[in-house]
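Predict the assembly for these two chains.
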Amino acid sequence: MRSYSPFRELFLARMREFYREPAAVFWTYGFPILLTAGLGLAFRNKAPEQIHVGLADSAEVAQLATALDADERFIVESASATECARLLRVGRIDIMVSFDDEAGAYEYRFDPTQPEAVRARLLLDDTLQRSAGREDVLQVAEVQVTEPGSRYIDFLVPGLIGMNLMGGGLWGIGFVTVDMRIRKLLKRLVATPMRRRDLLLSIISGRMVFTVPEMTILLFVAWLMFKIPFAGSLLSFAVVAAVGALSFAGIGLLVASRAQKLETISGLMNLVMLPMWLCSGVFFSSERFPAALQPVIQALPLTQLNNALRAVMLEGSGLGSQWMRLSILTAWGVVSFLLALKWFRWT
Amino acid sequence: MSDAVRCCDLRKRYDPRKKEPVDALVGLDLEVRHGECFGLLGPNGAGKTTTIEILEGLLEPTSGSVELLGMRWGSDDNQLRQRIGISLQETRLAEKLTVTETVRLFRSFYRQGRDPGEVLEVVSLTDKPNAWVQKLSGGQKQRLAVACALVGDPQLLFLDEPTTGLDPQSRREIWEIVRQQKSRGYTTLITTHYMDEAERLCDRIAVVDRGKVIAVGTPDELIARLGGDHVIEFALENPAESQDGPLKESYSELPSVTGSRAEADGFVLTVREPHVCLPALLEHTARSNYALARLTTRHASLEDVFVNLTGRHLTEADEEHVPA
């Protein structure tokens, strides 16, 4: 007589259902790669944008043109004062320079609420003052950082990995679970002597296994396209990613524990994920939020996951220094799983 | 030996906190003996599925007691689950698993059970072991669902409307599976709203209507209770009187007639001996100057039993009583 392991059969069923469904494979693997590549390209380092300067026709202003024409950071347009004002209004130029005969002074006209305009004013003024003979009093040297390890894309990639672990855990588990509920498959399964935790654990284990190729591919793409450096050990990264995946798997199960419609689960997922997308430091550091919000933001699992991933990938931290973050993540996962087991709707 | 299933004064109220709660069961009693195939027959919304799901331990009754194989839900759950097999009215099994994988999965939940291959033989799916579930026809899917119910080698099998929506061939295949289960000496409880299915398959039947059992017995017993096992149906050309008037009364006084009712455009008489009743009927119509539009005779069926008990047909959806 052959022996059967219910957990093994449930786990195999999850695996088979996953890899036999091309759409599921794409959304788990293809989409995050496209997203990472797309965002990476959008935020990769590029030459600073040129500044469009409008020069209002007058003899005094024309003198400035020589200094600006020589500098390739500026694109100069000469026109009448009214025409320049119009170009400024429609956003074709960042700043307009004219000469006020009464005051006997130059005049910059720009919108101080626009970062580009403010930057244009600073660079333009600096260039004009220098060309007019101003001496810098303070001696400074510049070091420009564009080498791997300190660029924005290096900051971004760990955030995107964290975001994928969250999205994969929540969608991957939430949809599968609610779908089984809609099909009355959950009801059919609890009508057997199956142990309920075997099913929930098989869903979570399945998700953990799907994470391995996902992370491998993401890291490979990040390295291939953006030459992302890897300061820490791969083992530490694997442990952090696994704890993160487990944590979000538990949360996914909790979110899906009662929902009876795909519409409900979609809404709930977005509700849970949106604050973390915004606040947990995917695209910019979570420390930029007001101090009053920090206790809440720091308690979010994605904040801790992103911080841990950055510490390992960018700073080469070992696991020992990350125990607090890993503990918070684990607590989220375990508490969510236990609550899910308690509240789960089987029929 | 005690009964395989016994439930007493089963009541189920849905949405008890809402203004208009639905009483799906209003005191239902049932006794199913070991080794028999027992049918719950009734129209849609009668409470059959509510009853069977309470028996299966998937639904809490509002009140009432349930005993299966001498055990109770709440104290012997795992024991019970090991020994019963269930096919729900509607389960969509995983589309991307094969037939064998699905049966193996269900087999793994039971301590003891049958070999998946052997069960596939029972449900005649041996030619499709590696087909994905989504590629199966409706009848094949239903047989697979029954295979999942059988693979734990259950002493007590619950089938909730196993043949609804299936073609005649597939229905007969399901019936064959139930008969095999019976020949193994096991008990089957089946719900259906097809009277022919109940009549052919079941040893005993409980007729369920509006949340309670209104008659129990073997198909023959139930039909015998009509008083006659033949039915004469006829219609008149242009009857001057309404069907429910004195005309109907006069028919019930014809010899050998045990019951009469007006239906659609004509009348239905339940009779013991058609050869006695027919000449009298023809004479009666001739005397009252009506011409017959049609006349047929047939054996009485469970449908007649149901109509006799409730005044409604099995197939008429009982709209106002369908639980939400």
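Chain B touches chain A at residues 56-59, 78, 81-82, 86, 88, 90-94, 96-97, 101, 104-111, 132, 148, 152 (CB under 8 Å). Chain B has two domains: 5-223, 227-299.
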